[in-house]
Structure formats: structure tokens, C-alpha cells
Amino acid sequence: MTAPRAWLPLSEPEFHVLLALGSEELHGYGIILAAEAATGGRVRLRTGTLYTVLRRMQARGWVEESEHRPEPAEDDARRRYYRVTAEGRAVARAEAQRLASLAALARSRGLLPDLPTSG
């Protein structure tokens, strides 16, 4: 198993696929919709890009096809559902930490506003 940090930085499509699958199993179009919703439409994964990324991530052991399926009346038999693996979650976590560190550095240099405090 390769150390998660060895894969960094991730491409934006890779990171968004891992983010989309981080909380639920999805089919390809669901991943596309999740990435668009999470970014207010800024990230629009094209089908070819998505399936290229999914194949690469499967080969690396980051995602796998899921056996879980919705009820037949709510499903299309042609859909493939995906879920993130423990290794994929570790890679996503490492990338999130890398990006958080960069944001903290930018904030310390006055390039980003301070985060609001609660309370």
C-alpha cells in the first residue's frame, strides 16, 4: 500500500470524486451531480473524464464498485454504483489536510480573510 501523501496533489476531478463518494455510494451521474452541487456549478465533470478517473481510482484501490442497489423500481440495471475504500478515504483526507495547510498559509499572508469565529 502506497502512503496516501505519495499520491498528492490530486487532480481536481479526482478530489471531487472522492468527496462525492465520501458520504454515500453513487452511480456515475450521481457523482457528476454531487460535484456540481458542492461547487455551485463551478466543477462540471464530463462523462469521459469521470469514467477515466474512476478506472484509475479503481486500479489504485481508492474506489470500488458497490453491490448495493436501490429497489428495482428506482434503479436502472445499467448503472454501476461506486463507493470509496479505506485507502481512498485516507488519500482524500491527506489532500484535504494539504489544501487546509495551503489555505492557512495564504490566510497568514493576508491573501484570504480570517475565518469567522463562533460564539
Report on this structure.
This protein has 119 residues and is mainly alpha-helical. It has a single domain, classed as Winged helix-like DNA-binding domain superfamily/Winged helix DNA-binding domain (Arc Repressor Mutant, subunit A), CATH 1.10.10.10. 49% of the residues lie in helices and 8% in strands. The protein is built from 4 helices and 3 strands, in the order H-E-H-H-E-E-H. The protein has helices at 12-21, 28-38, 47-60, 86-108; strands at 26-27, 63-65, 81-84. It has a 3-stranded antiparallel beta sheet. Helix 1 crosses helix 2. The chain is globular.
What's the SSE blueprint?
Layout lengths: L11 H10 L4 E2 H11 L8 H14 L2 E3 L15 E4 L1 H23 L11
Helix pairs in contact: 1-2
What's the short version?
With 119 residues, this protein is mostly helical. It has helices at residues 12-21, 28-38, 47-60, 86-108, and strands spanning 26-27, 63-65, 81-84.
